């Protein structure tokens, strides 16, 4: 039975409770689908040294849910305090996790099931107001985002595993001709970040004004066809197109094309998609490229990668009202008509496939399809405060990380709003990453 909350609107609280339940159920259904499609040997195997075994991700999802919702929010006794260290991502590098005494698949399934049963009781009893951890359901939203982020990581592990295809989904929308061109964004101030979204994470806060000089940004992400032009023009062999760090990595890693691309004897390019070889779709955004590849392409094209502020202004700023939206198309949640999210498809849609998802400035596909590299490093916003723990964001500030924005086809809507910040090392390609270009304006354009 639901509890009446004195001093609050009962229906509003119950709507929030229902939203939380639906969001948690959606994440768990996806997790189950990603682990139940392979056998136990595949679950405990390490498919790449830069990824965890799938069974580690499964139990880690449950452990984080137990720590924050069962113990902290619910004040309940631990379910399995003895495994906390095993599933602490900061204690054990991914390459070393297969050697740990991990829960086996049956134990992991039982564990996450027990934790979730207790969470339903915690959710039913929580007033969803009070301190910052529970107000607006923040802790529940944080855990749902954590699970969906690991689901995307597990999806990337599926892309790296050998063997037959085990995942299925309908093909994404196609277009007869790709969207191309650019949008000029005049100089001016906009509000970056958020104070209003109750589930926004600490690195998205606080909202703050940013003045952005005038710039132009591509209307859509760079496509496979355009990237092939870069390759055909010797892009991977021309040192002058690469930064020194990028060229050193290109040589060391032997980069010659995006990850998972293969060329047959007749010269046609194919791409491995979750165990299947498929002909390269020319109008799709290019996928599985690292920051250094995106940077070299930008130099070749006579442009550059956008800054994080430029990306967010293109995505959120509405010149008619002067306010920043939650999503490019407005403040309403994504639908199948506005963005390619949630593993609805297993690859990006063609450039121009989601006109209803365009931003107020006219820029397309800023949310969904591919994470987009920006030129910005991962730094805190002015007035940043770590919450609810330093290890979510603060310990990652600085270093060589580069910000990615927008979410991919493998990201869920709970972790793909216009303020959401992702980050990774510039050499990473297993993530579902692509990019779009920007440029400075010439005199008279602004």
Written account of the structure:
By secondary structure, the protein is α+β, with helices and mostly antiparallel strands. The protein has two domains: 10-160, Up-down Bundle (Four Helix Bundle (Hemerythrin (Met), subunit A)), CATH 1.20.120.450; 169-446, paralog of FGE (formylglycine-generating enzyme) (Alpha-Beta Complex). It is 30% helix and 12% strand. The chain contains nine helices and 14 strands. The strands form five sheets. The protein has a four-stranded mixed β-sheet. Helix 3 packs antiparallel against helix 5 (138-160). It is globular, with a radius of gyration of 22 Å. The N and C termini lie far apart (60 Å). 45% of the residues are buried. Residues 1-8 have low confidence and may be disordered.
């Amino acid at each position: 039975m639901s509890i009446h909350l004195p001093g609050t609107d009962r229906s509003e609280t119950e709507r929030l409770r229902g939203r939380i339940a639906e969001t948690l159920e959606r994440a768990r259904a996806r997790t189950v689908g990603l682990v139940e499609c392979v056998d136990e040997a595949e679950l405990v195997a390490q498919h790449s040294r830069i990824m965890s075994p799938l069974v580690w991700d499964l139990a880690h999802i449950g452990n984080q849910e137990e720590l924050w919702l069962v113990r902290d929010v619910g004040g309940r006794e631990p379910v399995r305090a003895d495994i906390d260290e095993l599933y602490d991502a900061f204690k054990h590098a991914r390459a070393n996790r297969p050697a740990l005494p991990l829960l086996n698949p049956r134990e992991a399934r039982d564990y996450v099931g027990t934790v979730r049963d207790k969470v339903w009781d915690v959710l039913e009893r929580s007033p969803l107001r009070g301190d910052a951890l529970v107000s607006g359901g923040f802790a529940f939203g944080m855990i749902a985002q954590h699970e969906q982020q690991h689901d995307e990581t597990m999806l990337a592990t599926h892309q790296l595993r050998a063997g037959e295809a085990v995942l299925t989904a309908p093909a994404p929308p196609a277009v007869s001709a790709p969207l191309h061109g650019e949008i000029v964004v005049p100089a001016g101030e906009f509000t970056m970040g958020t104070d209003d979204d109750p589930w926004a994470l600490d690195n998205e806060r606080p909202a703050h004004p940013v003045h952005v000089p005038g710039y132009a940004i591509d209307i859509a992400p760079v496509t496979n066809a355009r990237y092939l032009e870069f390759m055909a023009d010797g892009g991977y062999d021309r040192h002058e197109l690469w930064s020194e760090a990028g060229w050193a990595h290109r040589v060391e890693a032997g980069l010659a094309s995006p990850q998972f691309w293969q060329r047959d004897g007749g010269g046609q390019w194919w791409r491995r998609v979750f165990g299947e070889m498929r002909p390269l779709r020319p109008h799709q955004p290019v996928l599985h490229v690292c920051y250094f590849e995106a940077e070299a392409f930008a130099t070749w094209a006579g442009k550059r990668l956008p800054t994080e502020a430029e990306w967010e202004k293109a995505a959120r700023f509405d010149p008619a009202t002067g306010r920043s939206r939650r999503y490019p198309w407005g403040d309403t949640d994504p639908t199948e008509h506005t963005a390619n999210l949630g593993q609805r498809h297993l690859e990006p849609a063609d450039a121009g496939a989601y006109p209803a998802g365009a931003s107020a400035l006219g820029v397309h596909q800023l949310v969904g399809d591919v994470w987009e590299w920006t030129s910005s490093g991962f730094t805190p916003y002015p007035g940043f405060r770590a919450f609810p723990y330093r290890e979510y964001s603060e310990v990652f500030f600085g270093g060589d990380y580069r910000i990615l924005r927008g979410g991919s086809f493998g990201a869920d809507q709970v972790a793909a709003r216009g303020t959401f910040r992702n980050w990774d090392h510039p050499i990473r390609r297993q993530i579902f990453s692509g990019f779009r270009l920007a440029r400075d304006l010439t005199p008279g354009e602004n």
